[in-house]
Amino acid sequence: MNSEKLHIRLHVYDEEIEVTIPRQDEEYYRKAAKLITDRYNAYAQAYKGKKGEHTIALMTLIDIALLFERESAKNDTAPYDDVLTKLTSEIEEAMK
Predict the structure, then answer these.
(1) CB neighbours (10 Å) of residue 33?
(2) Are 5 and 20 in contact (CB under 8 A)?
(3) What is the pTM of this model?
């Protein structure tokens, strides 16, 4: 439904970006834009005159993707699921 969508403007580094988003995700979009801006600014300051904008943008993407991958690894439940499946199987077998 369109009533669940929200049209907002995000300030990302040196640009204003207009996006239409699910209303419940507005806070996440704004935090994401701030994270990108903060990380990009840090790289731009560290590598000013040494690297081009494209390279700095890619470094920013790698930095944020690395954060995501680390968080995803922390939340990987597959090892626990495997143990639970094995234990459940053993319990069911013992109850027969």
Answers:
(1) 19
(2) yes
(3) 0.71
